[in-house]
Give the backbone structure.
Amino acid sequence: MTARRRAIMWSTLGVVGVAVAMLSVVAWSLARPDTSAGVGLATLREQATASSSASTSVPSSPAAPSSAADPTLSTSTIVTRAGDPEAVAEAARPAAPPVSITVDSVGVDAQVDPVGVESDGSMTIPASPSRVGWYQFGPAPADGAGNTVIAGHVDTAAEGPGALFRLREVNIGDQITVVDAEGVSHLFEVAGKETVVKAALPVEEIFARDGRPLLVLITCGGEFQPELRSYSDNLVVTALPVA
């Protein structure tokens, strides 16, 4: 076999490999029907705010403007328009960041990286699907108010299923454990999960810094759109702290 023919063969195999990987992602998408259950984030926020005293509230974060998501953004965009980088930097303060998260019922076990925002205002997501990101300019698990937001890729063509791949399988009442940098375990109970079109993602509710503390987990959901190299929706799971 000539060198030229070998080069053509390896080039062809490379293209086929990429195609197979993309088909695998599509197959995973089709095999994972999205479901909604329990109480949605907006309702939980209303209930929590109504039941909490005014003394526990903090000013609303500048990290949650009301602009809509741009569906043409890359697959790295899980939560869009998290905030202007300069504005959210002003809200930064010392906290005990989460370092790991486990959901034993569905096999989720991941390390957590503190993340900020991209230049377009979207929340930064760790490149590797095996890791997840905590929005470091918002509340941490030990804070007495607001939402602790953790997000990650559901899968990638290069690495396959991610840490949150099975998140859609959680049931209401399942427990989530978040361990912070001080070694403290924070226990949460799933109260709701919902599939939301990315363009309609309620960023004001997700990045809230007031009201009863909640844990909000986000990953991709819905159908995979090859032309955009992205999923159509986001899966949002909301959990309440266990006293």
In short: The chain has four helices and eleven strands.
